[in-house]
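Q: Could you fold this chain for me?
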Amino acid sequence: MLPTEVLRRLKDLSDPEAVEGMARFGIRPDKAFGVSIPELRKLAKEIGTDHRLALRLWAAGYRETRILASMIDDPALVAEEQAGSWVRDFTYWEICDQCCMNLLEDTGFAYRKCVEWAASQEEFVKRAGFVLVARLAVSDKKADDNEFLRFLPLIKREASDERNFVRKAVNWALRQIGKRSLRLNRSAIETAREVQAIDSRSAKWIASDALRELESEPVQERLRRKK
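A: Sure. Below is the predicted structure, expressed as structure tokens.
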């Protein structure tokens, strides 16, 4: 499918009211058609995997073309340079999360980028680092616990960042690590208590919210059964 055909299809599906609604949830792209994620997934399934088209759709700059690009690109063909360029284009949380979930978590360098991006001062680059941590904790079933233990110091280090979309990603990463195994649960709870002691509203919120879930009976019971 050519980029012009994709744009035509997106225009046919456009919904200006949806664009206004997205803005209320912090989704404010420069250009958007207002097409829902389920509709984009249908179109992505129709297109199939297409790395070259993904690059051209990303360059088009629309919310929908960029989300679609993340859905159809081939993670095996995504170079670190491309990933870095795309991440620097993140200006709102939805494109960050969609790109991480649809594509970046499946690249061969995802674990390295968690560490690199988590150290960034750019809001959505940093968010991407922690979203990747959270996603890998869920999706990489074969990874050793040690892969995730090394992320806990990063979580503690960045927990005092007061930016809303950063702190939510840090919290997400901590909770997902702590729900992966009993060993990681204990370590995540210990980290949360250390974070709770930091003199920062953001850190205290991250910790209290994470502890509420990680120490809950449903989580503890599921992890005991998993063992």
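A (continued): The mean pLDDT is 95.
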